[in-house]
Design goal:
Layout lengths: L4 E4 L14 H14 L13 H7 L3 E4 L4 E3 L4 E4 L7 H7 L4 E5 L2 E5 L10 E2 L5 E2 L2 E5 L2 E5 L2 E4 L5 E5 L9 E2 L3 E4 H6 L7 E6 L3 E3 L4 E8 L2 H4 L14 H8 L8 H8 L8
Antiparallel strand pairs: 1-11, 2-17, 3-16, 4-6, 5-6, 7-8, 9-10, 10-15, 12-14, 12-17, 13-15
């Protein structure tokens, strides 16, 4: 059986947690309604629906390691000539902060909250938990690393019930090689995008990760059209009466309900 390992890299990190549906509690609530109230009932219990339970328990929950309020980023990508100071360029263009991503830079305003997650590394330096990622998104460093089987993939997705209101978690798929290499780069990170002021709390689920088999990405599809309906004795009788037999199932259904039965 494939094995996934999570390892904490920082004392503040919250390792991914396997979600579980408390079926006993849900059934107890249903029974309380039935035994205690005259009219109110819970006629359909989601915890008794296997597809719903499997969806709720899919993968592992990613939880916020701290409580803070995120704000939308108004950022712009820039190229800074070698002869110019990046921060002066950023101030000239109205950006409060400049972050280098590859050879280019991202200038963004409303940056104060990005520094609230700055944390101390084992060597005594300070690192940013949040880094502008462009197009309004933020790279969120989580303080833990994952090791997944070679050849598999890790999908990052919103939780089944959605992320915190006002926060978007872009869907992404990361190959095992990249996931396992993140251990030496400070651990796993995800992308998020706040669309308005949104407060997340320590321990609150913000995303979900799911292990994917390579066949999930390589599988091809084949579509088979509906076969024409074979003529029946009833079609022959209608043809003899002057009607043309139809091979359209919808038309056939209409014919069968066009008599007196259709008006009852």
């Amino acid at each position: 059986m494939p094995e996934v390992t999570f390892r904490s890299l920082q004392p503040w990190a919250l390792l991914p947690m396997k979600p579980r549906v408390d079926r006993a509690e849900a059934r107890a609530e249903r029974d309380t309604y039935r035994h205690s109230f005259r009219y109110l009932r819970i006629p359909r219990l989601p915890a008794d629906c296997p597809p719903w339970v499997l969806g709720q328990e899919l993968g592992w929950s990613i939880r916020s390691p701290l409580t803070l309020t995120m704000k939308p980023l108004d950022d712009v990508g820039l190229a800074v000539p070698d002869s110019e100071d990046p921060h002066q360029v950023g101030r000239r263009l109205g950006g409060q902060g400049m972050w280098q991503r590859g050879k280019d830079w991202i200038a963004t305003g409303n940056t104060a909250w990005l520094h609230l997650g700055d944390y101390r590394t084992p060597d005594g330096n300070w690192e940013g938990m949040f880094l502008p990622n462009g197009l309004g998104t933020v790279e969120w460093r989580l303080g833990w690393a994952a090791t997944i089987p070679t050849g598999t993939f890790l999908m990052v997705m919103p939780p089944p019930d959605g992320p915190p209101d006002g926060l978007t978690v872009p869907l992404g798929v990361i190959p095992a090689k990249a996931v396992n290499m993140m251990t030496a780069r400070g651990g796993l990170s995800i992308a998020v995008q706040p669309h308005r002021d949104v407060t997340v709390h320590r321990g609150q689920e913000v995303a979900r990760i799911v292990l994917l088999h390579p066949d999930s990405l390589r599988t091809t599809t084949h579509q088979t059209p509906t076969e024409p309906r074979n003529a029946t004795p009833e079609d022959a009788a209608r043809e003899g009466a002057g009607a043309t037999p139809s091979t359209d199932p919808a038309a056939a259904d209409q014919e069968t309900t066009s008599g007196p039965e259709a008006h009852r």
